[in-house]
Specification:
Blueprint lengths: L1 H26 L4 H22 L4 E17 L12 E11 L4 E15 L22 E16 L15 E16 L2 E17 L4 E12 L29 E17 L8
Antiparallel strand pairs: 1-2, 1-8, 2-3, 3-4, 4-5, 5-6, 6-7, 7-8
Helix pairs in contact: 1-2
Length: about 270
């Protein structure tokens, strides 16, 4: 595709050069009337071909990148406080561009999650053992692997263009889709499904390089993310039942990322001023 575009551009430039030489010899002609008519025709041809020289700018329909940041947990131990017990998180992603607004993203990575019930004495959980001070002596610390398939909607027409004034080099966006996490428990690997949703902001540093930041919440379909080794005290401690969405655990990720556009697709030619 790149070779074809180069050949077309080379042919156009060669044709322009030949026309310029023809104009030069005609201007030296002594036949004024014929010279003026041919000159007008050639000038019109040159002006008509100039928009064609502005050939299609490359368009990339894919994006691959790395991300890193922090993760935190919310559930039975910490039901409402955000950005507490922060732990590292990292991963990679692949994004596909359906159009200027709609994208699809597949990402994977890992996150550490931890929490100590002694830091949250206000959460009274029935049937959870207490120490002598009346504090729930329970904690967990685990690493999970995460996999998401997200639909992304850009609020602006995002890209890099020198001719389309509607395209912006930055945009906020929203995302939603299914998620799955894998954690190694004392009883073996545990798979947990859920829904991921969030928002982000990205900026195009150059024609192919992007940077940004995003925040996602992962609401799980289970209440056993925060179980500790050899116990299940926080697995439905309020006896609300497994189907109670309010009682399920979730974790959140705040990530920065850098990415490169891939999978080049030649764009269509556009005329100046369109």
């Amino acid at each position: 595709m790149e070779l074809t575009a180069f050949a077309i551009l080379s042919f156009q430039l060669l044709l322009l050069l030949l026309l310029a030489n023809l104009v030069y010899y005609i201007l030296r002609s002594e036949e004024n009337m014929l010279r003026d008519k041919i000159k007008d025709i050639l000038v019109g041809l040159v002006l008509a071909m100039l928009p064609m020289v502005v050939s299609a700018q490359p368009r990339y329909i894919g994006e691959i990148g790395l991300r890193g940041g922090v993760a935190f947990y919310n559930g039975d131990i910490n039901s409402s406080k955000v950005f507490r017990d922060l732990s590292p998180a990292a991963g990679a992603f692949l994004r596909f561009k359906a159009n200027d607004f709609l994208n699809f993203k597949i990402d994977g990575g890992f996150a550490n999650l931890k929490c100590d019930a002694r830091d949250y004495p206000e959460n009274a959980m029935p049937e959870v053992p207490q120490d002598g001070s009346g504090i729930y002596a329970f904690e967990f610390d685990k690493r999970i692997m995460t996999f998401d398939v997200l639909i992304i909607w850009n609020f602006f027409k995002y890209g890099f263009s020198s001719y389309d004034k509607d395209i912006k080099r930055h945009t906020p966006y929203a995302m939603l889709g299914p998620t799955m996490s894998i954690a190694k428990e004392w009883s073996g690997n545990e798979f947990r499904g859920g829904i991921a949703f969030g928002a982000g902001y990205k900026f195009k540093v150059s024609q192919r390089v992007n940077i940004g930041v995003e925040f996602t919440m992962h609401k799980l379909f289970s209440d056993d993310l925060d179980i500790g080794e050899y116990d299940d005290y926080t697995d439905d401690p309020y006896k609300m039942g497994k189907v109670k969405y309010k009682n399920n655990d979730y974790y959140s990720l705040l990530m920065g990322f850098i990415s490169v556009d891939v999978f080049r697709k030649r764009g269509s030619c556009r005329y100046i001023g369109r």
